[in-house]
Write a structure and sequence with these properties.
- With 125 residues, the protein is mostly helical.
- It has five helices and no strands.
- The N and C termini lie far apart (61 Å).
């Protein structure tokens, strides 16, 4: 017999996380995305070092709009992971643990990552 009112299953879609929780989950997702994309990024960087023909094929590949969008997505992942990592370092040092401060720094991380991605994405496009 069940005595608590706890749910039997978790409905992930209906759970509403606070902004610090969203930043935390996006930090993990961006880290996994960066790790998985390492072979592609290393291949792209290696293509610039080979010879002139390899560099031109690299430029042709990177010039495709879908590749550019993917690289801008990776740029966002890097920037979000960087800014959130700095935030978590401060949290580990017991700085910014108050609820209002944690919410504010989470909003700052989200804004900085999106603004820097937009600026660099437009500049690099």
């Amino acid at each position: 017999m069940r005595t608590t009112n706890r749910p039997i299953f978790l409905d992930i879609i209906s759970i509403r996380l606070p902004i610090p929780g969203i930043v935390s989950i996006l930090h993990r997702i961006s880290g996994v995305l960066l790790f998985i994309s390492l072979p592609l990024l290393l291949w792209l960087l290696a293509g610039t070092l080979d010879n002139a023909a390899a560099f031109e094929s690299y430029r042709a590949f990177v010039a495709h709009p879908l590749v550019k969008i993917g690289l801008i997505g990776l740029l966002w992942a890097y920037l979000h992971h960087f800014f959130a990592g700095i935030r978590f370092l401060f949290l580990d040092a017991h700085k910014g643990l108050a609820l209002n401060t944690a919410r504010t720094t989470a909003k700052i991380v989200m804004a900085l990552a999106l603004i820097c991605t937009a600026i660099l994405g437009v500049w690099l496009w």
